[in-house]
Structure formats: structure tokens, C-alpha cells
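This week, work through this protein record:
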Amino acid sequence: MQSKTSLRYVLILVLVSLVWAGSFVVVKIGTRNISPIHIGFLRFLVATPLMFLVVLLKKEKPRRLNYKDLPAFVILALTGVTLLYVFQFTGIKYTTASTSAVLINTNVMFIAILSFLVLRESFTLKKAAGIILGFLGATIIVTNGYLDIEGSFIGDVLILLSAFCWAVYSIIGKILLKRYNPLTLNTYAFALGTIFYIPFVINDFGSIFFITLEGWLIILYLALFCSVFGYVAWYFVLSHVDASKAAIFLNLIPLFTILLSLLIGEIVTISLIAGAACIIYGIYLTQKE
């Protein structure tokens, strides 16, 4: 495992963060006409066959799923596909946006802790300071300098569960990367996760037939860029970089989200500048051994 993250992996992590930041904008538009849970389901319903197509187009033959690994893949699918977005999108409905954005970023802390406890990755004081500073920067940005705590307790708990799901997904996935390549890993997880989504959408499945062209374009963006590209790239980097080091880059998502909001007339605030400085320096501390 590399002690420092090379420029190649840094650029990939930055690009993934930018793509995932864009998902917040398109999902916000999409929820005007589509339920949040249906957006999550359709995202992976479209992404799964695309992943299988990519697998077929690759020259190397993907490894078959070992039935001994099935329990791990079930956990992977639930935490990285199904429950992740059921908790996240439902939680956002019952709490404030600013609180949700802050709590989602606690996945960085969960990943760092689980990386130390499960993967036995190093957890130096400098790395801890970098992660905390990065989280502080994300907090400053999404709350504009103050924390809105008016959201309901249930919504906050669901967002925290979503953040924990992503951390578990990252750690379990890193373990399975020793036996499966990122493409095979994500394809199996997508397929299982989509199946596990069915109980959440079966009662209102007919509404899918009334989705507009705009809605389907949003779903295609989420499927192609956020799911297929994002997940494969994330695991590719995890196969070369410590999970806790990769996790710090997730703090760029709220920064990029606010920058993208400039396209709709938002103003750059002191909080944005201060938060960006914290995130950049937090990344520096985490990479410096």
C-alpha cells in the first residue's frame, strides 16, 4: 500500500467527488416528479445491465462469485446500494438539508475508524487531525457558519445510518478486492442491491411509467456517471490507496456541490472560502506521513 497518494489517484478521487456532487443537483431536480426511493431504484436498475455489458466487453474473464463470499456480498449490496439510499433519501425528507449534508460526511470518520479496527491501517495523530479538519471544513461550508438543528431526530438518525452504510461498504469492498476486481465486485453488488430494492418500490411500481424525459435523463446521469464510473473508480483507487486516505476526498463533495450552485446564482461566501481552506489543508495533512 502506498504511503502517499500519487497524482493519478488524487485526480481520480477529485473527479469522482465532482461527479457525485453533481448528483445532489440532479436529484433535487428529479424529486419534483419522482419519489426519492424510486430514483435510487431506477438508478441501479439501469446501471446493473450496463455493468454486465462492460464486464462482457472486457477481455479478461470475471471471477465467478464464490458462495462462501455470498454473505459479504449481501452486506456489500445492502450497505452500498439499497439501504444506503433508502436511509439517505428518506432521511433528507425528515430533516433539514444542511443537517443532512453535515451528517452524511461523518462517513469519513466512520471509514477512518473502521479502517483502523478492521483493516489495521495506521491512524496517526496527523491523519486524525487531517480527517477532523476536513470534516470541519465540510461543516462550515454546508451550514454557512452555523448549524441548523431543527431537523427531526428520526431524519438525523437515518442520515447517520446512511453514512455508516457507506463506511461499511468501503471496508467490506476493500477486503473483497483481494479476491475480485472492482468491476466484478460492483456488478455483483449492483445486481443484488437492485433486487433488495424491490420491497421498497413494489407498491408504487406503476408510477415509473409516468416519468418524463427530463426524469430519465437524470436517471441516466446517476446510472452512467455516479454509479458505473463512480463506483468502479472508487474501488480502483481503494485497491491502491488506504481507505482512510481516499475517504478524506469525500469532503470535497459539499464543496463542489456549492460551487455547482453558482450556476444557478448562488454567491461565494466567507464560509465557502474558509471551508475550502480547511478541506485542502486536511487533505494535505492526511497525505503527509
Summary: The CA atoms of residues 24 and 70 lie 32 Å apart. Residues 7-287 form one domain. The chain has a mean pLDDT of 81.
